[in-house]
Amino acid sequence: MSHVPVLFNETIDLLKASRDKIIVDGTLGRGGHTKGFLQKGAKVIAFDQDLEAINEAVDNFQLEKTLCKELKIYQNEDLTVVHANFTEMTRVLNILGLKMVDGVFLDLGVSSPQFDNPKRGFSYRFDAKLDMRMDQTQTLSAWDIINSFDQKDIFRIIKEYGEEQYARNIAREIVKARPINTTFELIEVIRKAMPLKSKQDQHPAKRTFQALRIAVNDELNALKKGLIESTEVLNPGGRIGVIAFHSLEDRIVKEFFREQANPCTCPKNLPCICHKNPTLKIITKRPVTPSGEELEANRRSHSSKLRVAEKITIEEGGK
Ligand SMILES: C[S@@+](CC[C@H](N)C(=O)[O-])C[C@H]1O[C@@H](n2cnc3c(N)ncnc32)[C@H](O)[C@@H]1O
């Protein structure tokens, strides 16, 4: 199963990968973007929390296991692959003997091989055990949320992370129907919870499945922490690029970049007394989106948005 990297050329250009640079790819997946950074001569430290992604990379990039008690690390001369969450960026870089890097890239969400593997339970297209864990060593799965969380917590998840207008009905029907073991059982419950007139152009379970996946993998909190860590490990002049696939993610990236670029909280008409220095400057005033050609060639690029910012140098007022 393969994954077509999204916004590939735009990412490689905007991250300014080149010889002598070290780039963190926080979301290795099937290594499409990583390969692009390597082709430009950069060294890459790649993270993924999914062991399948790590194992594939070991074969594809011919990596050797490095002895390390704390982490699974595989390396060749130019590429280091680590089984870790990108929220652990500083800790992992310390273990690798690195403090700062020249670029960080995050391509959020799941890869096609995860989504298209029926066993992983990410997709409403296949009948599978409720799972949705990106990290197979994690204990919390979609099954636990569906079968053991309170109705009000299930409602909150579906409402907040799925922006589903029928979240209340769906949460009520889920709790009534428990135990629910498989994706198809869950879809049946969701269908029943929706009014007939609501049959829209999208699959009725789409929003609920998105919500569950975000909750299982704590994706929005991971993104917030990942953005802070990325900014801290970036050298002045280094760039961070993030590809988001839905508005909840994109809003977090946009607001984070804005706050880092304009941290002053003083009233506009008064002199600044907070003296907070900007840490980033925004490179993409508007997000970069796929060309018509890419949209046609890769359905999954639909709704992707790339935002890039650059760490402020001392001359520009940075620390
Ligand atoms: C959209 S795919 C990346 C695809 C990749 N850019 C490529 O070209 O093949 C996202 C990958 O990031 C991983 N991932 C998502 N969130 C993560 C996190 N917080 N920490 C580490 N890996 C994460 C997923 O397991 C998945 O393999």
Written overview of the protein:
The chain is of the alpha/beta class and 319 residues long. The protein folds into two domains: 8-112 and 219-311, Vaccinia Virus protein VP39 (Rossmann fold); 139-216, DNA polymerase, domain 1 (Orthogonal Bundle). Helices cover 39% and strands 15% of the residues. It has 13 helices and nine strands. The protein has helices at 8-14, 32-39, 51-60, 89-95, 112-116, 142-148, 151-162, 167-177, 183-193, 206-216, 219-233, 247-261, 292-297; strands at residues 22-25, 43-48, 64-66, 73-75, 79-83, 101-107, 234-244, 280-282, 305-311. A nine-stranded mixed beta sheet has the order 3-4-5-2-1-6-7-9-8, sandwiched between helices. The longest helix has 15 residues, at 219-233. The mean pLDDT is 95. Bound molecules: S-adenosylmethionine (SAM). S-adenosylmethionine binds at residues 3, 5, 26-27, 29-33, 47-50, 53, 85-87, 107, 109-111, 134, 222.
The molecules bound to the chains, other than polymers, are: S-adenosylmethionine
Molecular shape: globular
CATH class division of the largest domain: Alpha Beta
Mean pLDDT: 95
Question: Strands, helices and their partners?
Answer:
Layout lengths: L7 H7 L7 E4 L6 H8 L3 E6 L2 H10 L3 E3 L6 E3 L3 E5 L5 H7 L5 E7 L4 H5 L25 H7 L2 H12 L4 H11 L5 H11 L12 H11 L2 H15 E11 L2 H15 L18 E3 L9 H6 L7 E7 L8
Parallel strand pairs: 1-2, 1-6, 2-5, 6-7
Antiparallel strand pairs: 3-4, 4-5, 7-9, 8-9
Helix pairs in contact: 1-2, 7-8, 7-10, 8-9, 11-12
The protein binds S-adenosylmethionine.
S-adenosylmethionine (SAM) binds next to helix 2 and strand 2.
